[in-house]
Amino acid sequence: PGAGYGWFSGTSAAAPFVSGVVALVLSVDPGLTPAQVRALLARSAIDLGDPGPDPRFGAGLVSARRAVEAALGR
């Protein structure tokens, strides 16, 4: 707004990034089901906060590299 920069966070900010990672994952393995993609994203996320999923960070920070490598079986 006003030719400047803004800052925001939360699920509205995360959704486009996660959607992009899902597209990358499906580009290497289009046969994955939605449940498989969700599990793969959770497994490949970078853990934040206390170990394991938690209310504040969920499964953690989405990682495009780790998600694609997981989809490729690496």
Structural account:
The protein is 50% helix and 0% strand. It contains three helices and no strands. α2 packs across α3.
Write the layout of secondary structure elements.
Layout: H1 11-28, H2 34-44, H3 64-71
Helix pairs in contact: 1-3, 2-3
Radius of gyration: 14 Å
What is the oligomer described by this structure?
single chain
What does the main sheet amount to? none
Distance separating the two termini: 42 Å
Stretches with pLDDT under 50, minimum 5 residues: none
Question: Number of DSSP helices?
Answer: 3
- Which structural class best describes the helix and strand composition? mainly alpha
Question: What portion of the residues fall into strands of 2 or more residues?
Answer: under 5%
For the secondary structure, the number of strands is 0
Mean pLDDT: 93
Series of secondary-structure elements, N-terminal to C-terminal: HHH
Q: Roughly how much helix do the residues carry, as a percent range? A: 40-55%
Name the shape in a single word. globular
